[in-house]
Amino acid sequence: MINVLSKLPNIQNSIFSTMTALANEYGAINLSQGFPDFDCSPKLINLVHTYMKKGYNQYAPMQGINTLREKIAEMTEDLHQSVYHPDNEITITTGATQAIFTAIASIIRPDDEVICFDPVYDSYAPAIDLCGGMVKTVTLLPNDFAINWEDVKKVFSHKTKLIIINTPQNPTARIFTDQDMQQLIKLTNGTDIFIISDEVYDKVIFDNKKHISVSSYPELRERSFVVSSFGKMFHITGWKVGYCLAPEKLTAEFRKVHQYLVFSVNTPIQYALADFLEDQDEYLSLKNFFQEKRDYFFEALKATSFKALPAEGSYFLLANYDSISQLNDLDFTKELIIKHGVAAVPLSTFYKNKTDKHLIRFCFAKKRETLEKAIESLMKIKI
């Protein structure tokens, strides 16, 4: 018998896979995993088909095709007044998760420390572990999930190499403010600390608020990898296409790792996306599209025994179930699937120490009828 010494001994299947499998088993409405149940634009599908038929079916350049990188540069400058050179500062990736792993692998060495904000998206820590780094968590404030920057200072050390931020944040739906960015500038000024800014929901901001990107601040831009996702932008999570913006020196290191992870990204999809980005409304309309869904779901939850928390961005919403049950959130979400036919994600799984706040995360990136059916089921839950 061969003995396998795991590099990730504490990692099992992700909570998203677990809840989706359970939802499928019991025929539940799946508001757990972050993907739409509606299709993407037929125009985009036709563009992919067109480029396949035209013969664009071989390897793309390692860094991505020129036209797509140029369109990303134009979009970034229009939205954030930040200039990235398509040739040496923009790289097309196989989704955002690959971009984040590549950025971590390009700069983290054994015993380097990485600061993350708890609750945190679950893909960061395993990537840090695989690269020999050490995760240092800063817990967001309990009421509004804001950052106490004094707490951040307390975990700083001479080993601090990287800070990972996520705005809008998954799972809390909170967005970074200008004040947050100013604090980040003060903390990193004069250091060699890098930043990874996960901005995959940057087009999904509500209530006339504006997405605040690190790319808009020269002091942060020079040390940052900015990651985004076409999967989130255009409802194509299964296509796995994203991109990374970074200064030339950081991009050079990023691409050294990138070329040996995936080498290149789906060719016809890249050409299709480049054409699709010609129409700015395809991404500028996202905030209104998803705000309508957020508003409906938030208001509809008032007719249930759940208490919804404010959602500033992303397509997630947290809800408290204190008035319904005193079960821990993992057991409660399992019961919610089995007895009531609705799948959600327990917030505790996003905390390093599995903190249970009786909060669960719903994904509202669903058809209106899907959300209506979910609310109908949730209304039947008695206190």
TrEMBL record:
<feature type="domain" description="Aminotransferase class I/classII large">
    <location>
        <begin position="29"/>
        <end position="378"/>
    </location>
</feature>
<dbReference type="GO" id="GO:0016212">
    <property type="term" value="F:kynurenine-oxoglutarate transaminase activity"/>
</dbReference>
<dbReference type="InterPro" id="IPR015424">
    <property type="entry name" value="PyrdxlP-dep_Trfase"/>
</dbReference>
<dbReference type="Pfam" id="PF00155">
    <property type="entry name" value="Aminotran_1_2"/>
</dbReference>
<dbReference type="GO" id="GO:0005737">
    <property type="term" value="C:cytoplasm"/>
</dbReference>
<protein>
    <submittedName>
        <fullName>Methionine aminotransferase</fullName>
    </submittedName>
</protein>
<dbReference type="InterPro" id="IPR015422">
    <property type="entry name" value="PyrdxlP-dep_Trfase_small"/>
</dbReference>
<keyword id="KW-0663">Pyridoxal phosphate</keyword>
<dbReference type="InterPro" id="IPR015421">
    <property type="entry name" value="PyrdxlP-dep_Trfase_major"/>
</dbReference>
<dbReference type="GO" id="GO:0030170">
    <property type="term" value="F:pyridoxal phosphate binding"/>
</dbReference>
<comment type="similarity">
    <text>Belongs to the class-I pyridoxal-phosphate-dependent aminotransferase family.</text>
</comment>
<dbReference type="InterPro" id="IPR051326">
    <property type="entry name" value="Kynurenine-oxoglutarate_AT"/>
</dbReference>
<keyword id="KW-0808">Transferase</keyword>
<keyword id="KW-0032">Aminotransferase</keyword>
<dbReference type="InterPro" id="IPR004839">
    <property type="entry name" value="Aminotransferase_I/II_large"/>
</dbReference>
